[in-house]
Structure formats: C-alpha cells, structure tokens
Histidine--tRNA ligase
Amino acid sequence: MAKLQSVRGTHDILPDEMPRYRNVFDAVAEIGTTYGYGEIATPIFEFTEVFKRTLGDTSDVVSKEMYTFNDRGGEGLTLRPEGTAGVARAVMSAGLLQSVPLKYFYRGPMFRYERPQKGRMRQFHQIGVELLGVAEPAGDIEVITLGADLLDRLGVMGDTVLEINTIGDMDSRNAYRDALVAYLEAHIDQLSDDSRERLHRNPLRVLDSKDAGDRAVVADAPRFDDYLTPHAADFFATVLAGLDRLGIGYRRNPFLVRGLDYYCHTTFEFVTGRLGSQGTVLAGGRYDGLIGQMGGAETPGVGWAAGVERLSMLAEPRSVAPRAVALVPLGDAAEAEALVLARSLRRAGVVVDLGYGGNLKKRMKRADKIGAARAVIFGDDELARGVAQVKDLDEGGQTEVALADLVDRLAVRRG
Ligand code: ATP
Ligand code: MG
C-alpha cells in the first residue's frame, strides 16, 4: 500500500467534527431561504476557460493556485477554485438571464494549490450567495445584510467587523488607476518584486499586498474616494445609508479592492481577530461586468463567499444529536427480539444502539462508552413476561416496562 496519509492540504471530516460543518451549511440554507434565495449546485470541475476568463490571468488563483488537468479525452479542465464563475456559466447554459433577478446560494468544496496552514487548505469549503440582475444599491444592501444575519445566526457577529469600500464605476476606476500608477512609480524602489510586476499589469492589486514594505508605501497612496464620479459616490452613500438604517456597523477600509475590470462599486469583507492572520471569514462585492465578459448579455451581479473551515472553528454547533438508547438483549431469543424492537424504536425517532454481541458486562460498557442515556435490558425471563428493564444510566434507577409500551415510553416527542 502506498502512503496512507491524506494529501497535503486536505482534511478528513470525521463524525465528531461534522456537526460544526453541518451547522454552517445549514445556516446558509436557513437564512438564504428566508431571503428567497434558492440553492444551486454546479459541477466541481469546469472547462479551464471558465475560470481564466472570470478570474483573469494575473490573479493569484489563476496564476498559481488552480488544479488544472487534461482528462482522458484531452479536455482542459480545472477543479473549481471558487463558486461565482460556475454559477454564472450555469445560468448562461440554462438561458436564465431573461428571468432576472436570480437569487442563489451554494455550498461545497473548492480547490486551490496554496501553502496549507490553519484556516487555509487545498480542498476547503465555501458557502456563498449570488444576486444577478439587480443594478441598484438595494442589491448590495441585501447581500451584505444576508451575510450579517448568517454570521449572527452562527453567533460570530460579535467577534467580526465589516470592512467596506467602493471602487466606483469604470470612469472612477480609470481616473484612480492613473493616479495610483503615478504614485507607485514614484516609490518603485520601495516596492517588492511582486508589486513592481503588478504595477502595470494590475496596479490595484498592489493595494492588498501583504508585504510590509509595500504596505508602508500603500499607506500614503491616493484614496479612491477622491476619484469617484458623482454617480459612484451616490451609489456608495445609498449602500451605507441602508446599512446604517439596519444598524449594521462597518469600518471604511479605503484599500479594500478587487483588481479585475468587471468588479465595481461595493467591496466588503467580514473580518475576525480570532483566527490569526486568516481572519477574513466572508468576502464579496459587486461584479457588473462579469457575465458580459463571459459572453452573456450584460447583467449586473453582487455576491459573497465565506470559508466554512474558518466559520466552523468560530461557531458552536447549535444542537447535538439526541442521546442513544442502548439495547441489551441477553440470550438468543432476546437477541432476535432486539432486531425488531430496534427498528420500531428508530422508526419512532429514537436513536438506538444495538450492541451486536457480548455478555451483559461488555454491552453495558459499550452503552457507557457511546454516552447512552438509557439501557433496555431483557433476557429470557423478561421476554416470557413481555417486559424489559429500562435503566437510567445517569441516575442508575431501573424500571420495568412492558415491551408493548416501550416505543411509546421512549419515543421522541415531536413539536
Ligand atoms: P486570501 O487573501 O486569504 O487568500 P482570498 O481573497 O483568496 O483570501 P476569497 O477568494 O475571497 O479569498 O474567498 C472567500 C473566503 O473563502 C475567504 O475569505 C476565506 O474565508 C475562504 N478561503 C479562501 N481560500 C481558502 C483556503 N485555501 N482555505 C480555507 N478557506 C479559504
Ligand atoms: Mg487566496
């Protein structure tokens, strides 16, 4: 047998950990549904072009992080590194752009070749929402509010700050880009090699460089606010007024940008201090040019994606599964009866553990190990009398219950 480890940057979610993930997946479905968003699931791989077109050749994701391969038919495919491109491709494939607005949420695995660390994996999971066909600031307000309500439902809003910025419309951005490039050229000797290279290809990306030298230069860079057209400034003011009205706090971060041409107006991130340097839990913005860039009819869009690993580390799962009832049949006849009894109880919603074998001591030990709340013990004598001993494993007390009443006595009361 070759290596028995999982591949670097991947992770097995064992049953103990699954409730934390489930909690996050359930939360986006619950909150998304109340906002009228429907679930969409697109394939885990797409033609490589789908991501290249939408993410751009200069993005980190396309230039260094994609899992790209040729399949046996020679098709160039890529494991999806994010969700938006696939959703956009899907609505175009299905001819849905005539019936906007389209409101979707998604959840599932994503793949990026990155240096693994806490909160950064090669296979990770995202939940996300996309709102297509809404050009008004009401769309931005809605998706941000949905994100805030999701974080609130997960109990992490208190540890999280919403950072927000605008990158304006095309005219704002062109004016800003010229000013930024002029400024950066004047400080070129202080920039990292990466940023020097980005300076002409994709200058906005210098603003979110993590290099300390770059950051010092960026601190005094021109601000987007000074280059916004009146339309772009109004748009952003309306978004902020909506958040104010809803009592959603935020912090202006003038350097929160997206480098690609189809991004515009609002950019935002919910950031926590509780996860070290991987503090962004949910990130999004407006992407009015994306569908047009992919070859579809010009359709505005706004959305976000959140990291499930990061959220599941922060949030306590809401409910745990009900505790089990352990069946402890003693002898062949009881063993046979236990099969039938277990099924009836399970159909009534009771979590049942069937001990599979062994003597009383071994079975009681197992009941204890799985944390069962009660044990139902019966041997030939009980069977002959049509009863069983129901033992409370927390208190130690024991009561005799007629087998015919067991399902009723142990059934889960449903609201
Ligand atoms: P970063 O700057 O941290 O690399 P990013 O800009 O690549 O982030 P997005 O593409 O905006 O991240 O993804 C949205 C969210 O998905 C992130 O805020 C994060 O919570 C999560 N995420 C992104 N990459 C990973 C990863 N490799 N492992 C785990 N979670 C991730
Ligand atoms: Mg990244």
Summary: The two ends are 51 Å apart (CA to CA). The pocket of magnesium ion (ligand 2) is lined by residues 60 (CB under 6 Å). The first strand starts at residue 38 and ends at 39. DSSP finds 15 helices and 16 strands in the chain.
